[in-house]
Amino acid sequence: MIQLNVDGIGFVRVDSWDDIESIPGYTEDLHISDDEKLSEVIGVYDFPLKIRCGISTCHQQHNKGYIVKTVSGSVTNIGNVCGRKIFNVEFKEKKKIFDRDLADSGNREKLWLIRNQLDGYDERLAGVLDGNAGAVALERKLRAFKGSNYRIPREVGDFLRSAVRTRDSVIYHSRVATADEVAIEEALIGRRVQRPYYVSEPICVVDGIESLHGDSDLKKILISDLKVNFSRLREMDIDSATSKELKDMALWSGKIEELFEKAEVAIGYCRRFLDKNNLNKLLNIELKRGKDREHFVSVIKESSI
Ligand SMILES: [Zn+2]
């Protein structure tokens, strides 16, 4: 591919080397003299085929290089190493300006494209957020099970925190071991165990625990990230933004689809977790205070879907 910075037009992509050879002043055999200084870097190429370096003393074959213009108006192609060898620091500086302008131009193009689709993106986001089964409603229901402000019994909070941390969401019950179980354990460890001896038994697995992980945070994905950045892009002055602003926003815009997908996955986890039968499994967790259970049953009723 060849990218050229054409006076009065900006950056254009050309596919054929003929387009380079037809630039006024182009020569494939440039004789460098003291008067022949570098004026500007006007293009870059990256080809599967090798192109002969235009400098008369070099003529090495390069796959990649730059198109340069000298003060006398001559134009030729030159490899990166040759450029530095022949035009010294001047080449490095002009190349830097060209590379920056090229990146800015690509980023502007990308951002205008997304900007023109923002109404569609806003609509899509609203579709994910709103409604009875939307992310806002789900996140509100999920809140009781998240963070430190639990409306749920301490034991349930402990279980959920541990399940998130260890990625193990099995609820266990402990009970007094049978005589046989004690005998097996003692045979295994080779000494007598203290009575009463307890064993842990898996009761059930809670689904959708992933919805409580930090990286499934729907508010973060959909509001702090997508919604906020859509507004930023809408208000951004794309034509006069700095290189860094363009680069950052263009990088972010490349993640839009990924963020929507991440939200869909998180919503899936959320639905599995908030499913009534799933939340009811949490009632298997042993509670110290009997009246906590009654309150917790009402929390589940409010939160389940
Ligand atoms: Zn060369």
Would you give an account of this structure?
The protein has 305 residues and is α+β, with helices and mostly antiparallel strands. The chain has 3 domains: 2-115, no CATH class; 118-169 and 206-303, no CATH class; 170-204, no CATH class. It contains 11 helices and 7 strands. It has helices spanning 17-21, 80-115, 118-129, 135-142, 154-166, 179-189, 218-235, 243-253, 256-274, 276-280, 290-303, and strands at residues 2-6, 10-14, 38-52, 61-70, 75-78, 170-176, 198-205. Strands 2-1-3-4-5 form a 5-stranded antiparallel beta sheet. Strands 6-7 form a two-stranded antiparallel sheet. Strand 4 (61-70) and strand 5 form a beta hairpin. Helix 3 (118-129) runs antiparallel to helix 7, helix 4 crosses helix 9 (256-274) and helix 7 (218-235) packs antiparallel against helix 9. It is elongated. The two termini are 54 Å apart.
In brief, what are we looking at here?
This protein has 305 residues and is of the alpha+beta class. The chain has three domains: 2-115, no CATH class; 118-169 and 206-303, no CATH class; 170-204, no CATH class.
Record the SSE blueprint.
Layout: E1 2-6, E2 10-14, H1 17-21, E3 38-52, E4 61-70, E5 75-78, H2 80-115, H3 118-129, H4 135-142, H5 154-166, E6 170-176, H6 179-189, E7 198-205, H7 218-235, H8 243-253, H9 256-274, H10 276-280, H11 290-303
Antiparallel strand pairs: 1-2, 1-3, 3-4, 4-5, 6-7
Helix pairs in contact: 2-8, 3-7, 4-9, 7-9
The structure holds zinc ion.
Zinc ion binds at residues 53, 55, 58, 60, 78-79, 82.
